[in-house]
Amino acid sequence: MSSLLPLFLKGKVVKGFGRGSKDLGCPTANYPLEVVQSLPKNLDPGVYYGWAQVDSQPVYKMVANIGWCPFYQNKQMSVETHIMHKFEKDFYESNLKICVVGYLRPEKNFNSLDDLIDAIKQDIVNAETRLNENEAMKLKADVFFD
Ligand code: ADP
Ligand code: MG
Fold this sequence. Notes:
The protein is α+β, with helices and mostly antiparallel strands.
């Protein structure tokens, strides 16, 4: 699995399925189907950390959920990227580049919304730490980003 990383993806930001990520304080930018279909077939579903860039804005830290998408009867994966930056406005239709650097944890179901929110907060803390490591920092400067 780790040989598949780092993984570089780019594509347009599309509307997600309105699962209310924003209400959880955690908006997630979705990729269209063709980007998802380009993923390596043996990539493990789960929560990943890495770098993200919207158009030619600065490169920010991100956490991404790469998982099975209920909307397509779990036949398609989805990639949902939460960028660790406060944006002034939404950026649907913008170009989003991500570098998936490492794996944090498998997907799981939560008993309550509070448990889910706690897990997301912990993911963000863990991503923050891992992205400050030297190997991860090098990827922030990759020529892939503008
Ligand atoms: P959707 O179901 O359309 O994905 P979300 O509630 O998950 O709706 O919100 C995602 C949208 O919020 C993104 O497509 C983007 O335009 C916007 N957005 C604003 N700030 C962020 C951020 N920090 N990370 C990701 N998306 C963000
Ligand atoms: Mg979303």
